[in-house]
Amino acid sequence: MTINKKSIEATPVKIKKGSILGMRHVQSFLLFFNVTSIYCSRLNIGVAVVAMTNSATANPDFPEFEWSEKEISYIISSFFWGYVCTQFPGGYLCKKFGAKLVMSVATCISALLSAATPWSVGWGSWRILCFIRIVQGLAQGVIFPCVYEHLAKWVPLKERNRLGAFALSGSDCGTILAMAVSGIIAKGPWGWPGIYYVSAGICFAWCVIWLIFGENNPNDSKYIGSQERSFIAAEMAHSEGYHKKNIPFPWKAVLTSTPFYVLILARSCQNWGLSTIHAQIPSYLSGVLNMDIKANGLYSSLPFIAMWVMSYVYLSLADILQSKTSISLTSLRRLFNSLGSWLPALGLVIIGFLDEHQKIWAIVLMTLIVALNSGNIIGSALNMIDLAPNHAGIMMSLVNAVSNITPFISPLIVGVVVTDVTNRTLWQIVFIIAAAIFFFGNLLYILLGTAETQPWNAEDYLQEKCGKRSHIHGYDNNIEILEIQVNSFDAKDSNFKSVKK
């Protein structure tokens, strides 16, 4: 049997994707659930520490601790002391052992530490809480490299914005639960210890579901249909045996790549601004607007509810722009990153001039700031996969390791600047610093950022440097992809009329 090459090139083949809800969608949901659970245990500290230091605003039947603002700043920032340390190893662990095992172990450790916190703080005070938060950071530091590696292996390019952004929007859902529910729990019969028990329970629940349905790649999944497996394989166009290969990381090419450094700086600036908002909203509402812990938790969650909703608005808009216009992926990334950075920067400057008599305006403006910031997910957050899908986990570990130094520094700066939490002028300084960093980080991304896949992403890039490249993107590979496509169709549905005996 021979194949007419010209007829193949002229006849586009539409590959069936399988069922409407496929295993790639299930994997995206599992990633969403995981990000939600770890953000609960990461960010509930903002509300918990207020309840732990002021029992009059929570359930008074539980111990109250006398911690200074400086000690509280250590508690809030300590998570990131551990978090930045395991970012880099996280990418390699995921590549070696797979996302399923690494994420299971890391999330389970985080859950156990959350469950042990109330008992531990009783005898170790703020120092033991800092230690627990550091170890939690070490555990959770390996998770996001796994998330990106998992997305790169499961999600085709055309669905990257939709499924990738959905998975990452778990950070907004987790933030909502951490802030809104934590305030209610602290007021209830479980008191502030219940905040830690609930977050531990959510993490344990995810572990059970993940162990059942999570798989490192489509070839390993026993629940995926043949059509969906063929669709993913054809869309990604990997060489034979790709999932069993150990593709070496091109260190020299990456460390001399301009898009790589631009992305690091853009994400660092984004994380500074976002961490300032995340960690300081409860303190700002309590100190400047004089709101009790229950209202604090509810009102603090409103911006993140809006952010969660707005992330899907951005997602829909991105789909429309990609399908109805000729906008490039690079232009799309720059546009949404600008919306997610410059508009919040303006809002931060304005909010610093509001006081206790303008509570409603402060809440409205804070809600808009946080909601608009969700544009960075479609903007720079998914850019690691664009640049190098074959190295997404390690790329994420490198970028996240450096960019998460800023959330470590940000609370310390707040602790130095805000010596009186009721002083509006001191908060103005904090917000203006964050706004300036937002602005200049995005300006750099607009000028030099890109979503083009880099040459060093090629599976045989290092072999090519030695003169041994195998031309997997040539005609032979097209025939291999064609065979996958043919196998996914019934003979009566195929368009390959050029096949001759």
UniProtKB/TrEMBL annotation:
Residues 20-453 form the Major facilitator superfamily (MFS) profile domain. Gene3D superfamilies: MFS general substrate transporter like domains. It is found in: Membrane. Keywords: Membrane, Transmembrane, Transmembrane helix. The chain crosses the membrane at residues 29-52, 72-94, 101-120, 126-151, 163-188, 194-213, 297-315, 335-354, 360-382, 394-414, 426-448. Pfam families: MFS_1. Its main location: membrane. The keyword Transcription does not apply. It is a multi-pass membrane protein. The keyword Disulfide bond does not apply. PROSITE patterns: MFS (PS50850). This is Inorganic phosphate cotransporter. It comes from Musca domestica (House fly).
